[in-house]
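As a warm-up, study this chain.
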Amino acid sequence: MTINLQKGQRVDLTKGNAGLSQIMVGLGWDPVGRPSGGGLLGGLFGGNKGTEVDCDASVIMLDSNGRMNKKEDLIYFGNLQSKCGSVRHTGDNLTGDGDGDDEQVIIELGRVPANIHKLVFVVNIYDCIRRKQDFGLIKNAFIRVVNSSNKQEIIKFNLTDNYSGKTSLSIGEIYRNNAEWKFAAIGEGTNDASLSEMVKKYT
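Now compare it with the structure written out below.
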C-alpha cells in the first residue's frame, strides 16, 4: 500500500520493509496545456504553443556533513552512474514499470558507501535563462519510490505548491538514520539557473 506524503513529512523506508535492498525512484511532471497521465520520455513539451521545456532529474550524494566531496557524486544525464555503482540514472531510455515517470533512478541501498549519508533528488530546467522558462510551465510533479523486487510502490509525494518563477526544485531526500534509510518530502523551489548552481551549496 502506497504512503502518500505531504511536504515536510518523513517516513521510514527500510524499517517495516524487511529485505528491501533495491529501489526505483521515479520522478515525473506534465506540461501545462497538455493532458496529464504519461511519461514523455525525455524532453517535455509545455505551454499551449508547444514550447519545449527540457527538465532534468539529478541525484546529489552527500556525506554526513551535507557535502558533495567529488564530482562523481553527482548523478545526472552527463554521469549516469555513481563510481560505486549503487546509484544509476536510466537516462531517456525508460524501461520497466514506469507509467507516468519521466526519469528513473535505480538505487541499491546496500551498496551505497558508508560515507554517503544522504541522496538529494533535484529537477532543473535546462537552459532556463535563455529560454525564459520556469516551473509555471510544469504541473503534476511527483516523486515515488518503488520496491524493485516486487514492483510495489512504497511512497509517493505529489508536489502541489505553485512553483511559478522557480527554475529548480529540490523534491525529496533519502537519508540514513542509524542502520535504516528514511525518505523526506522536500518540495522546495529555488531560483538556481542551472544544476551547477544547485550543487554549489553542497560543496
